[in-house]
Design goal:
Elements lengths: L12 E5 L2 E7 L2 H9 L4 E5 L6
Antiparallel strand pairs: 1-2, 1-3
Amino acid sequence: MGCACGNKNKTQYEVVENGRRVFGPTPYKTTADSVASRVAGRTVREVEKGAN
């Protein structure tokens, strides 16, 4: 199991393309924006709380 590292209440982001996650989740919006900008049609969205 991975380390939560105190990010339990922080917003997480993921990169999606055609409704499928292609990267994430990550607590860093700038990282998600960078990954999304590399391919046209990808967007960044917040991960819903309680998805576990």
